[in-house]
Amino acid sequence: MLVKAQYRNQKKFIKIPEACFDLFLAEVKEKFSLPQDLVITVTDETGTEVDEDVFPDLMSTSGLLLVINALNDSGPSTPQSSASFDTDTLSLTSKSSEDSDWFSPKRFRKDEDEASQNSQARDLIKQILETRPGGANVLREYEDTGTITDETRKVMVNILVAHMMETEGRVPHRLTKQKYGLGIITLFPSLRDPQGRTGYEHFYDGQKNSGFLSWRLKTVQRGTKPSGNKDDPKTEEKGGPLLDRQLCHPEDQLDSDQSLEAISLMNHTSDREVIMQKMRATFKYRQRLVRDPEKSTTILSVFPRFLDTKGLILQDFTLLFGSETASRLLERWPTVFKSKIIKLAETLTSTPLLKRLLSSAKQKKESSEAEDFPEWDSDISSFLLLLHFLSPQVSGRKKIQKMSISQAIDHLVVFQKACRSIQEHLETEDNRQPYILAIGSSKEAISQFFIVLDKKLIPCQESSSLAAVDELFKVHFVFSISYDPPLKGLFTFLQTTVYRIDVGSTSETPRVKELRAKLQNDV
C-alpha cells in the first residue's frame, strides 16, 4: 500500500507491505534519509497525532497526508542527516552489522579513510560466507575461477539476505544494503560493474530499490504483501528508443510544406541519390510523425521508400547519434564481445539447444550434426547465446508462464525457406514488435534478411546476420518503438554496453549489469 508523507518541505510516497506503524516509520527514515535513532512523531494535516493504535484505521482514508516531525527539528531547511547520506556515490564506512553505532553520523566524517571503509565491508561479507553453510563454496569457486556462476551468485545472495534480516529484521536499512553491495564487489572485484556509479548497482541500487539483494528481500517478504496496487508509481524511463532527441545534424531540414513536396517527389522517382537526400532532409518532419500516437502507425505509408531502398535505417540512426555510435556493433561485436560471450556460455548448464548454438558460434559443428539439427551461422548464434544470459523474466505478481529460450528466439529471428511464400508468412503473423525474417535454403545459408514491421518488409542493407541484428536494433530508435518484452534485456545490454547509448539514464536489470561486469572484467 502507498501512504503519502511529508517531512519539512519534501513530500514522498511511502510503500509498505501492510498497515504496520513500525514498518511505516522505518520506511519513512529510509526514504527521507533520517538516522535510525532519530525520534519522530506523526500527525495528520490538522496537527492531530497519529499513533500505532489508529494507524491501520487511517489507511482507508482517501487523500491522507501524514506529516513527519522530528524532535529538536530546527525548521524547513534540509536536515543535517540528509547531507550525510549520499546513497549512491559514497563508499560506506562499515563496522560489523551487529555494532550499535553502524548508523551513527560519526562514521561519515570527511576524513574517513575510503580504503578502510572498503576493507571493513569486504571483511564483513567474507566473515558471513565463512561462517554460513554453503558460503565456503562461494569463496572457493571465486578463488579457483576468478568469478562465480549464476547459481553460486544466487546462493551467496540468499546467505547474505538471511544474515541481513536476522540482524535487522524484515526491513533492513538502505545503508546496510549498500554496505553489503560494497562488500561483495570489494571481496570479488570481477563482479564490479565498470559503468555503474558505485559498481554494485546490480546487487543493490538505492535510487531504484532494485538489484539481486533487493529482489531476494522482496521474495522473502512477499508472503505478507497485498496482491497488488494499481496506484504504485512507475519509474520514469529516461533513456532508450522512446526518448525524444536532438538531431546530430539539424541543418538543411525542411519545414512541413517543403517536406510534403519532398515526399511527393520521392514517391515518383527511382533515383536512389535523390531518395537518400530527400529522406535526410525530411528527417525532422518524420520524427514528429513517429512520436505522434495518432500518426505513428502510418509512417511506412507516408514514407514507403523504407520498403524498397536499402540504407535508410542507417541514415536516420546516424542523424540521431552520429557515425561513431552507429558503427559500434559492427566493429566491436566480432572483436570485443563475441568470444567472451562464447566463453561464458560454456559455463552454463548444457542443453541440446545450447550445445548446437555453441558449436555454430565456434564454427565447429560436425557435418552429420548440421544435417540433423540445422542451426544459425556463427554471428547470429552468438546473439542467441547472449539471450541465454538475459532470458525473459516474469515481472509483477501475476502467475504467468515463463517464456523459454527457444520461444524468445522466435521473437528475435524467424527462418523461412526460400521456396515458401513470404506473403503467406506475413498474413499468419501477429502484429508484434519488429523481428528479423531470414530467407534461405537453410539457417546456415541465408540469402536475404528483412526487418518485419507492421506486416511489412524492410530490406536489410547487408546480407550478413550481424548487420541484420544491427539494423533490427536501430529500427527501434528510428521509429520510436519500445523493445519487445522477451528481448528487452538483450536490447538494453546492446544499447548501454555495446552502442553506449543513454548510459546511466537507462533502467537496467541486475542481470544486464552483472553480465557487463563479467565481460568487461574479462573473467
Helix/strand layout:
Layout: E1 2-7, E2 10-15, H1 21-31, E3 40-43, E4 49-50, H2 55-58, E5 65-70, H3 80-84, H4 114-131, H5 135-145, H6 150-168, H7 174-187, H8 212-221, H9 256-266, H10 272-281, H11 283-290, H12 299-302, H13 312-321, H14 323-326, H15 328-345, H16 352-361, H17 367-372, H18 378-389, H19 405-412, E6 413-417, H20 422-428, E7 435-442, E8 445-453, E9 456-459, H21 465-478, H22 488-498, H23 510-520
Parallel strand pairs: 1-5, 6-7
Antiparallel strand pairs: 1-2, 3-4, 3-5, 7-8, 8-9
Number of strands: 9
Outline, from the CA principal axes?
globular
Give the termini distance in whole angstroms.
Answer: 42 Å
Percent strand: 5-15%
**Based on helices, strands and strand pairing, what is the structural class?**
alpha+beta
Order of strands across the biggest sheet? 2-1-5-3-4
The average pLDDT score comes to 82
Keywords:
523 residues; five-stranded mixed beta sheet; 9 strands; four-stranded mixed beta sheet; alpha+beta; 45% helix
Brief characterization of the structure:
This protein is of the alpha+beta class. Helices cover 45% and strands 10% of the residues.
Mind explaining what this structure looks like?
The chain contains 23 helices and nine strands. The protein is of the alpha+beta class and 523 residues long. Strands 2-1-5-3-4 form a five-stranded mixed beta sheet, with helices on one face. Strand 6 (413-417), helix 20 and strand 7 form a beta-alpha-beta unit. Helix 13 (312-321) crosses helix 21. The radius of gyration is 27 Å and the shape is globular. The two termini are 42 Å apart.
